[in-house]
């Protein structure tokens, strides 16, 4: 695992994605949340100003809230369109179906789809303040596949800022790629900024490889990069 501490993590992350795409990547894995936003802004800039093309590339999302239609501003399918994929020349963008009548079957179908369009060449990741990746909360099986999860209250409180600070509006359930599914990607690239992530980053990098910190799976992945700013690196 390589840890990069830098003032502008989005530049390093954008380099990783741009190099993968220029090198022939056909599938990239996208994450939502605020952490990768600056990376997406930088990639859109390179697309507009430097001709970086995503032609021939498809994308898969990590996760989705159960019960939010894709038109809802906080659905992850909508979020990624608004903040990234509608602004570049990428191909298909896949995400779990959070509105399927049978969420379990939808999760299994999504895992199978990733198997078909994958392997993911490079997977972007953020990290939750409790060490989750995707929506794999602490105690998630290290070999888990895409499935339904119940969010912890901590994560729902963290994400309430996107729902008018109203905890009741934050869905309880999600469909998320499992830790095993995520680990199938050829390269994992995690970005974290700010001192609020310092404990989670320290646990992921220097703590034991353990389900109590799902992001610690990056320790056993052959090609993992953690890109952090000095504040997020503060407890390393
Ligand atoms: C959500 C997402 C994760 C993301 C995390 C951190 O829980 N499912 O993919 O990494 O939030 O979000 P943020 O980057 O906004 O701190």
From TrEMBL:
It holds the Pfam family Glucosamine_iso. GO terms for biological process: carbohydrate metabolic process; glucosamine catabolic process; N-acetylglucosamine catabolic process; N-acetylneuraminate catabolic process. Gene3D superfamilies: 3.40.50.1360. Keywords: Carbohydrate metabolism, Hydrolase. It comes from the Bacteria. PROSITE patterns: GLC_GALNAC_ISOMERASE (PS01161). GO terms for cellular component: cytoplasm. Residues 13-219 form the Glucosamine/galactosamine-6-phosphate isomerase domain. InterPro entries: Glc/Gal-6P_isomerase, Glucosamine6P_isomerase, Glucosamine6P_isomerase_CS, NagB/RpiA_transferase-like. Its EC number is 3.5.99.6. The keyword Coiled coil does not apply. CDD domains: GlcN6P_deaminase. One of its GO terms (molecular function) is identical protein binding. It is an enzyme of class 3 (hydrolase). This is Glucosamine-6-phosphate deaminase. It comes from Gordonia phthalatica.
């Amino acid at each position: 695992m390589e840890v990069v501490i830098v003032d502008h993590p989005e530049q390093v992350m954008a380099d990783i994605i741009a190099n993968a795409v220029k090198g022939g990547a056909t599938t990239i894995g996208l994450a939502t949340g605020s952490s990768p936003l600056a990376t997406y802004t930088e990639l859109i800039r390179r697309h507009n100003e430097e001709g970086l093309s995503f032609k021939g590339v498809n994308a898969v999302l990590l996760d989705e809230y159960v019960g939010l239609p894709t038109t809802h501003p906080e659905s992850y399918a909508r979020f990624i369109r608004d903040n990234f994929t509608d602004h570049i020349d990428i191909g298909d963008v896949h995400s779990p179906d959070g509105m399927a009548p049978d969420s379990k079957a939808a999760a299994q179908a999504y895992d199978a789809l990733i198997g078909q369009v994958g392997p993911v060449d490079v997977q972007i990741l953020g990290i939750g303040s409790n060490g989750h990746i995707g929506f794999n909360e602490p105690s998630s099986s290290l070999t888990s596949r895409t499935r339904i999860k119940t969010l912890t209250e901590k994560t729902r409180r963290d994400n309430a800022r996107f729902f008018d600070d109203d905890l009741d509006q934050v869905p309880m359930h999600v469909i998320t790629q499992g830790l095993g599914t995520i680990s199938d990607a050829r390269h994992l690239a995690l970005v974290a900024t700010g001192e609020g992530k310092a404990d989670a980053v320290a646990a992921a990098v220097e703590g034991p490889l353990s389900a109590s910190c799902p992001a610690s799976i990056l320790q056993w992945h052959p090609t993992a990069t953690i890109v952090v700013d000095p504040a997020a690196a503060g407890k390393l």
